[in-house]
Here is the input.
Amino acid sequence: MGPAFCFSPAEEMCEKNVEAFCHHSSAGQEGNVASIPQEREMRVVVFVKATADSENDVLPTTELLEAMGKYNEELINAGIMLGGDGLKATRHAKRVHFSGSDRSVIDGPFAETKEIVAGYWIWEVRDMDEAVEWVKRCPNPMFTESDIDIRPVFEMADFAALMTPEVQALHDSNVERNIAQNAAREQH
Here is the structure.
């Protein structure tokens, strides 16, 4: 079964992404894991691992789509979800292999289903414990046993010892341009 948490960012999600780059504080909402205002310190990518069903393009049921939609709504109301989508099976994918300066393209499908990502969310949370608590509340996105991995995102502060003023300026410029492009897309 394909992952059941498709999400297309709305204008307010673009605004949340802009604020996330600035590491804003998010006030808790009713029904949140945390009900008091909390500083969001960490971004994570939450990976839904593929199953044989998702790799065979088996679609979710209407009930699962509704359950995942309600779960996403909770994440949005809590100010945690920055984005996310389900991914098509790897038979629709390409892989680019790097070997020095050479590149080769490999057509899907890819073996080892347990290593394939079927979908993802990007969240901003207080810490890994909060991310784990939210994942534990998630409906099983597959018909069979499934796994969800949570990985912290590198922040620019993680590279502070390596950052020169020129490299910092380049990254700051990229963030500003990305925000502007996303805002322009939302206006169309």
Q: What stands out?
A: The domain at 11-153 is CATH 3.30.70.1060 (Alpha-Beta Plaits). The two ends are 32 Å apart (CA to CA). The chain is about 35% helix and 25% strand. Residues 5-37 have pLDDT under 50 and may be disordered.
